[in-house]
Amino acid sequence: PNMIDEFPVPVTKELIDRGQTRYNIYCIVCHGPNGAGDGMIVRRGFTRPPTLHDDRLRNAPVGHYFDVITNGYGRMNSYADKLNAADR
What we know:
Blueprint: H1 13-31, H2 40-43, H3 55-58, H4 62-71
């Protein structure tokens, strides 16, 4: 209930490009290139993650994503040791 609901830094082209790079390194294997939950390991039998296009996730506050990346959720492990706080 106390999650932030807006980005704490300006959203610039550089920030979006860095986010895309981090997504391509850490997220694409499960969530797929378009966030549909059809990444390569899913095609090889791993449990499908939720689509990022689901209204529940599209409307989630940005703090939700920071929390999930930091602490993990469901079958997703924490990425806090791989992504610094600024990248999360």
